[in-house]
Amino acid sequence: MGNQSLPIRREVGTAKIKERAGAGIGVVLVAPSGLRVEEALELNEKVTNNEVEYEALIYRLEMASSLGIEWLRVRADSKLVTKKVSGNFDVKEPRMATYFNIVKHLRAEFMQSELIKILREMNHRADDLAKKA
């Protein structure tokens, strides 16, 4: 594992605001035993900040599933994504609905999955990895 380039996995139209190419994703998985798996990925297409947050969540879910994890607690610093995925905010935009549906499908693969909003300051390792991508 390590640094790699990751294309956006779905066609959701073109972003009109806050687009940036080469956005990074930092992912840290920590097992109860303390074992850590860290990834730094670069998205090689233009994406909005919200799309980056969804891409990071989707990548974490896919990674955890591929490792055979059945019980998952995801900590994320995106209020928008955590509120939408938890059902506290409506998903209105078709682009975000596409991401939401992918996350919903992936979460169904786990016996239990929990998404917790954390402060950005508590997410420094994932942020550091994203900057290195």
Q: Would you write up a description of this structure?
A:
With 133 residues, this protein is an alpha/beta fold. The chain has helices spanning 49-66, 79-85, 94-107, 124-132; strands at 3-6, 24-30, 36-43, 71-76, 112-117. The protein has one domain (3-132): Nucleotidyltransferase, domain 5 (2-Layer Sandwich), CATH 3.30.420.10. Helices cover 36% and strands 23% of the residues. A hairpin with a 5-residue loop joins strand 2 and strand 3. The radius of gyration is 14 Å and the shape is globular. It starts with a strand and ends with a helix.
CATH H-level name... which superfamily? Ribonuclease H-like superfamily/Ribonuclease H
| Count of separate structural domains | 1
User: Radius of gyration from the CA trace?
Assistant: 14 Å
Strand content: 15-25%
Q: Quickly give the CATH architecture.
A: 2-Layer Sandwich
Low-confidence stretches: 1-19
Number of strands: 5
CATH class: Alpha Beta
Let me know the largest β-sheet: 3 strands, mixed
Query: What is the count of DSSP helices, taking H or I runs of 4+ residues?
Result: 4
The CATH topology is Nucleotidyltransferase, domain 5
Calculate the terminal CA-CA distance, rounded to whole Å. 12 Å
The coarse overall form would be: globular
Mean pLDDT: 78
Walk across the major sheet and give the strand order: 1-3-2
Helix-strand pattern, N to C?
EEEHEHHEH
Helical content band:
25-40%
Helices and strands: which structural class?
alpha/beta
